[in-house]
Amino acid sequence: MKKKSPQNGFTLVELAIVMTIIGLLIGGILKGQELMQNARVTSTIAQVRAYEAAVTTFRDKYDALPGDFANALTRLPNCTAACNPAAATAGDSIVGDPTWEAGLAYATQSGSSPALLASVRGETVLFWVHLLMGDLIGGVTNAALTGGAATWGETHPAAKIGGGFIVGWGDGKRGPGAPVGVVGNSGLVVALVLSPTTGTVASMSAASSQPLTPTRAAQMDRKMDDGVPATGSVQAYGLTASCFSASGGSYAYLESVSQNDCGLIFRLQ
């Protein structure tokens, strides 16, 4: 008569070891993802600072702002006639329309919504071309000079954290989603946006349609500025009451929100 062999199974100790190993693996993956995101934040901040330095160098060398450089054809290497901005206001020391902020169509009393890319020779597009031709930045090509469509890595630089950068002139208006009473940046600004053809208040305040979570936006703001979404040289925009809140005149990022409901606007000069 054959004896039944005992069935082997895991002991409680063995199960505990397996669960510990699984926990360590999951923890390692999550930690690795966090480290990668932190690296992307740092790289994106470095991009913004590089653009700020590039504008300063360009202005010192040519006595003009990139994009607003009226006689770029005769002074920038390898430029064609398309390097000269088409607007009659070229050379007025303002990049783009002075009533725009971050090169976007912000809400106005009349509800007007000017197009972001009015022409391939628009100042907000030529801004990147002029810096490229001046050998001051990389990450873009001269595609705008031949009528290329607005694309990250071609007409506009992509951001390391996702999305990319567009440029414009801040006029002090609050950004989309910002509470009434917020005073926006004035002067030359770049905005971190999801698409290079973003150009309406609706697209900049839609849910899950921005480049950053409130946590990442806050992280970048704290590293570069005061960490407050509605003040300083770094300011937030996004989905109303989801990117940041205002309570008693005090503004704070809603870091418990996990959706990509935030973008940032950086003042360069």
Question: How would you summarize the topology of this molecule?
Answer:
Elements: H1 12-62, H2 72-75, H3 123-133, E1 164-171, E2 186-193, H4 201-204, H5 214-224, E3 234-238, E4 244-247, E5 250-253, E6 262-267
Antiparallel strand pairs: 1-2, 2-6, 3-6, 4-5
Keywords, separated by commas or semicolons:
269 residues; 4-stranded antiparallel beta sheet; alpha+beta; 5 helices; globular
Summarize the structure.
The protein is an alpha+beta fold.
Tell me what the structure shows.
By secondary structure, the chain is α+β, with helices and mostly antiparallel strands. It has one domain (14-267). It contains five helices and six strands. The protein has helices at 12-62, 72-75, 123-133, 201-204, 214-224; strands spanning 164-171, 186-193, 234-238, 244-247, 250-253, 262-267. It has a four-stranded antiparallel sheet. Strands 4-5 form a two-stranded antiparallel sheet. A hairpin with a 2-residue loop joins strand 4 and strand 5 (250-253). The relative contact order is 0.13. Residues 101-120 have low confidence and may be disordered.
Number of helices: 5
Return the structural class.
alpha+beta
Could you name the ranges where pLDDT drops below 50 across 5 or more consecutive residues?
A: 101-120
The averaged pLDDT comes out at 82
Q: What is the N-to-C order of secondary-structure elements (H for helix, E for strand)?
A: HHHEEHHEEEE
Strand composition percent: 5-15%
Instruction: Record the strand order, biggest sheet.
Output: 1-2-6-3
N- to C-terminal separation? 93 Å
Q: How much is the radius of gyration in Å? A: 24 Å
Largest sheet: 4 strands, antiparallel
- What is the number of independent domains? 1
Percent helix, as a range, is: 25-40%
* Overall body shape: globular
Counting DSSP E segments of at least 2 residues, the number of strands comes to 6
